Amino acid sequence: MRPTNPELDVRELTPYQSFKLTGNKKLGTVVSHYGLEYGPLIEGLAHLHTQLKKDGALVALVHSSNSTLVRNNKAMYELMPSLIRHLEKHVYNLYTSILEARGKPLGKQAALSQRKLDQLAHTHRNNPTFKRSNFVPAVRHILQAASNGKKLEARQVYNDFLNNMKFHYAQMDDMIQAVEQVKSADHLAQAAEKAGFKRVMVQDVEFPETGEVGFCLQAIK
Q1: Is 1 helix (H, G, I), strand (E, B) or coil?
Q2: Which of 15, 103, 109, 113 has its CA 20 to 30 A from that of 212?
Q3: From CA 86, how far away is CA 74, in angstroms rounded?
Q4: Residues 188-214: pLDDT tens digits?
Q5: In angstroms, rounded to a whole number, what is the distance separating the alpha carbons of residues 150 and 138?
Q6: Pairing, β 52-63 against β 27-33
Q7: How far apart are CA 91 and CA 219, in angstroms?
Q8: d(CA 77, CA 207)
Q9: Which residues are CB-contacts of 159 (< 8 A; sequence separation ≥ 6)?
Q10: Alpha-helix runs per DSSP H in the chain
Q11: pLDDT tens, 80-101?
């Protein structure tokens, strides 16, 4: 799935892939605190290399697949396509049918959409990832606004939630793909060397209090 609005597609060009200082100035040091994952890793490293001065330094923390944040995001990433489909089909069908009915009984298609949404909520009733998605509160808000005849509010909440869901799905897709590229410290070191960096050193790092696990990359242009 890709956002319909190109401005929401973080895979076009993320800031660290495209930024440049004015007057062709170069950076002496780049420090990244778990930022490289939010864009294509290889292309991003290559661009950072071009923006550094000679002998400039790169210091970056990068998540590994064992990081709590990555595991949580992967669970959400795997759930989101189903939530987006339900939003685009059943939530849209139900809230527009409620607006059109104006208090009268709903038709068969609307009733079917209601059952599908109930089934989704029942299936994931004990799923913490589903709860973190805020799907139920958002849908409840949309349907209540529609029931009260607030067409603009229902439409706005629906569009905002759907667009945000697609945006975060695309963002997590970049992160997960980047993390999956970094299978080990050696893999990350090879990626930095391929981008042109020298004196590359990669260490394993772990922060038990937050569950963040990954690598610390240090390299020189």
Answers
A1: coil
A2: 15
A3: 19
A4: 899 999 999 999 999 988 876 666 778
A5: 15
A6: parallel
A7: 49
A8: 24
A9: none
A10: 15-18, 41-51, 68-86, 92-101, 108-123, 128-132, 135-147, 151-181, 185-194
A11: 999 999 999 999 999 999 999 9
Token pair listed for 75: 């669970």
Match 């956002």 to its residue by tokens.
Answer: 3
Q: The whole model's pTM is what? A: 0.65
Strand 52-63 relative to strand 212-220: parallel, antiparallel, unpaired? Answer: antiparallel
Rounded to 5 degrees, what are φ and ψ at 17?
-90, -20
Contact 19, 12 (CB under 8 A): no
CATH of 11-64+182-220, one of 3.30.200.20, 3.30.559.30, 3.40.50.410, 3.40.50.150: 3.40.50.150
Tokens found for residue 211: 């569950």
Instruction: Please say whether the dihedral angle defined by the alpha carbons of residues 191, 195, 196 and 201, taken in this order, is positive or negative.
Output: negative
How far, in Å, CA of 201 to CA of 186, rounded? Answer: 9
Which part of the chain is CATH 3.40.50.150? 11-64+182-220
Residue 84 contacts residue 1 (beta carbons within 8 Å): yes
78 close to 130: Cβ distance less than 8 angstroms? no
